[in-house]
Amino acid sequence: MPAPQKLPEKTRARREELLDGLRRLFLAEGFSAFSVSDMAERLHCSKSTLYLVAPSKEQIVVAAVRSYFKRAAERIEARVAESQDPRRLAVYLEAVASELEPASEQFYADLAAFAPANEVYQENTLVAARRVRELVAEGVAAGVLRPVDAAFVGSAVAQIMTGIQNGTIKAATGLDDAEAYRHLADLVMASLTREPTGSHA
């Protein structure tokens, strides 16, 4: 079976431009209420042009949501890589919170209600949980975090991340996802950060 042909450069650029517009639109207003015609009108393009993204509304939504989380992950990792702070776990969790902050309540509600898009969020949450485990282990090895079991901490943090993702944390606390990640960062860093040498209990 022949390999699928790559899209021409101009087509790829136009598709990325459309995804950028869809990301901004969905983050601000959600996506459940929009038809393909509505999306095309808001992006000032034709429906046929919008179908460069994907062949149906459902697939357009998933493509835009996947694009959002992919871009967010790239920016998060860039911030971690640039950081000189040895406690890069704190930088990571704060970056996650910053990336989630622009998303409206309607976006999160639509994400929870539409399983294919919510699966993308869940996949990214699992990747983030693995990254937390790596950063805990890194901090322990560097001596900036207390000598804890990184697998246990990573697993515990993963449970909270899953609770944020599936809405149980919001239901219990009223915190949106970005706020919850900031509180998670405070909790984790307060419990793991070594006390300065010579400090007293």
From TrEMBL:
Residue ranges of domain HTH tetR-type in the record: 12-72
Keyword list, A-Z: DNA-binding, Transcription, Transcription regulation
Domain of life: Bacteria
GO molecular function: DNA-binding transcription factor activity; transcription cis-regulatory region binding
Keyword DNA-binding belongs to the record: yes
Pfam family, one: TetR_N
Gene3D superfamilies documented for this protein: Homeodomain-like (1.10.10.60), Tetracycline Repressor, domain 2 (1.10.357.10)
DNA-binding region coordinates: 35-54
Keyword Cytoplasm: no
Stored PANTHER family: HTH-TYPE TRANSCRIPTIONAL REGULATOR BETI (PTHR30055:SF234), HTH-TYPE TRANSCRIPTIONAL REGULATOR RUTR (PTHR30055)
Official protein name in the record: TetR family transcriptional regulator
Organism of origin: Thermobifida cellulosilytica TB100
